[in-house]
Amino acid sequence: MFSPLKRRRSPSGFSSSSSAEEVTSGIDGSGLVAIVTGGSHGIGAETCRVLALRGVHVVMAVRNPSSGARVKEEIERQAPTAKIDIMELDLSSMSSVRRFANNFKALNLPLNILV
């Protein structure tokens, strides 16, 4: 007979049911810069939200800047001091990738995290 898997915590104390906020609790990301691809939907948007909550300067690399702007507004409601930039990026287009890279370099920011 089939028995459901037991949810066991790993040595880190987290399990598959742990939330991103739980996993990052106590982490200070101030001074870090992250580029998050696909930040306007799904897990990318959640990644942007949690990184911003932890003080990381988030650069949302998105195909549709207006979708990114909606996510940014929602994050800023939860974290008014969040540092979030939206930059257009279509990973299926090398010209878009080059343009994004040049625009990011022009910001003179370090890159600490790439998602």
Automatic annotation (TrEMBL):
Residues 1-24 are annotated as: Disordered. Residues 1-10 have a biased composition (Basic residues). It comes from the Eukaryota. This is Uncharacterized protein.
